[in-house]
Amino acid sequence: MHSSTNISATSIIIKTTIVHTASYFIMGLLALVLFNYTEKFSSGVLGGYMRPVSDPIVMFGPAFQLIRGFLFGIVFVLLKDILFTRSRGWLTIWLMLAIIGILSTFGAAPGSIEGAIYTRLSYPTLYDIGMIEVYGQAMILAVGVFYWVRNPHNLWVGWGFSIVAALAVLLVLPALFFAPTAG
């Protein structure tokens, strides 16, 4: 069993913020290309539900993940004795994210139980291939944070996630400066 006494709250929050931002960016970019989100979000039922990927606020989305990662980190700190001391803590993190954050969210989101009950989205739309992105990103977050917190001296993990997270934030800056202004 791994001890959580030497794991600082600040370390968990920073690592969670970085891994979340990096994993969100990686999975979002892959899904954008592989699942053709540009077309998918601009037509059909999702065209009225989702902003187009060219919308400046959507383009700035990866930078907002710093806030979400920070919030996830707070929860992980509160549960650190459960999440980071057991050999399969990554699975606990992933199940927690999947069950509470995706499937049982309080909002009527696509892929959730509430979405199935309260939206007019069809089941294929609610539970389409895009859920691979959502569950996959949660898995990368769970495994990445778990491994990095338990192996703080692994420079490849730390530098890798940090570089991708920094790129995710830096690449969205043009959306702020070159976005069309409202007429």
Q: Could you list some keywords that capture this structure?
A:
183 residues, mainly alpha, 12 helices
Distance between the termini: 60 Å
Average of pLDDT:
88
Strand portion, in percent?
A: under 5%
Estimate nothing, just give the exact number of structural domains.
1
Helix percent band: 55-70%
Structural category: mainly alpha
Number of helices: 12
The 3D shape can be described as: globular
Order of helices and strands: HHHHHHHHHHHH
Low-confidence stretches: none
Please report the total strand number as a whole number: 0
What gyration radius follows from the Cα positions, in whole Å?
18 Å
Largest sheet: none
Task: Please write out the topology.
Elements: H1 9-34, H2 37-40, H3 44-47, H4 56-59, H5 61-78, H6 80-83, H7 89-103, H8 113-118, H9 123-126, H10 131-150, H11 155-170, H12 173-178
Helix pairs in contact: 1-5, 1-10, 1-11, 7-10
What can you see in these coordinates?
With 183 residues, the chain is mostly helical. It has one domain (9-174). 69% of the residues lie in helices and 0% in strands. Helix 1 (9-34) runs antiparallel to helix 10. The radius of gyration is 18 Å and the shape is globular.
